[in-house]
Structures are given as structure tokens and as C-alpha cells.
Amino acid sequence: MKARVHVMLKNGVLDPQGEAVRHALGAMGFDGVKGVRQGKVIELDLDAGVTEADVEAMCEKLLANTVIESYSVEMI
Questions:
Q1: How do the domains of the chain map onto residue ranges?
Q2: Global pTM value
Q3: pLDDT averaged over every residue in the chain
Q4: What is the pLDDT of residues 35-44, one digit of tens each?
Q5: What gap in Å lies between CA 20 and CA 26, rounded to an integer?
Q6: For the structural domain made of 2-75, what CATH number should be given?
Q7: What is its main location (predicted)?
Q8: Burial of 47 (0-12, 13-18, 19+ CB in 10 A)
Q9: Which end of the chain is less enclosed by CB atoms within 10 A, N or C?
Q10: 29: left (phi over 0), alpha (psi -120 to 50) or beta
């Protein structure tokens, strides 16, 4: 079994890396991009007994900084 965790900065938190990507896209001629938010995807290979609640606990303790980031868990 696998879990996929999507981590993004919360709304209202400045994203300098996303802004750098937006600026670079404009410099490369890709007009019309109003904003970029950059996040990360973490894919976990799990033993059969690991639950979604276990993965959420992993996110709360290590995988996401819950002060400034939100996350979602997808069991696949």
C-alpha cells in the first residue's frame, strides 16, 4: 500500500519560491501567469497495517509544518 501526501503553504503565507517561478515564467515569455504556489508531494510505501490516521500523525509530527502548511493524504 502507498500514501501520497500533498503539502502546500497555507493561504496568506508568502511563497517566495512560487513568486520566483512566476517571475521566471514571465521572463521566458509565458504571459498570463498571475500567481504560482509551490508545494511538495511525498509518497510513502507502507506496510499493510498502516492506516490513514497513522499517516496523518506522521504529517503532524514531521512531514508538514502545520503552522504555515496544510496537507492532504491520499491512500493509494
A1: 2-75
A2: 0.88
A3: 97
A4: 999 999 999 9
A5: 10
A6: 3.30.1280.10
A7: cytoplasm
A8: exposed
A9: C
A10: left
Cα angle at 29 between 25 and 35, to 5 degrees? 35
- Count, residues in the chain: 76
pLDDT at 59: 98
Neighbour order of strands in the sheet with 69-75: 40-45, 2-9, 69-75
Question: What per-residue string of b and e applies to 26-44 under the rule 16 or more CB within 10 Å gives b?
Answer: eeeeeeeeeeeeeeeebeb
- How far apart (Å, rounded) are the C-alpha atoms in residues 59 and 7? 9
User: How far is Cα 46 from Cα 24, in angstroms, rounded to an integer?
Assistant: 37
Beta strands in 1-76 (DSSP E): 2-9, 40-45, 69-75
- Residue 45 has φ and ψ, to the nearest 5°, of -90, 125
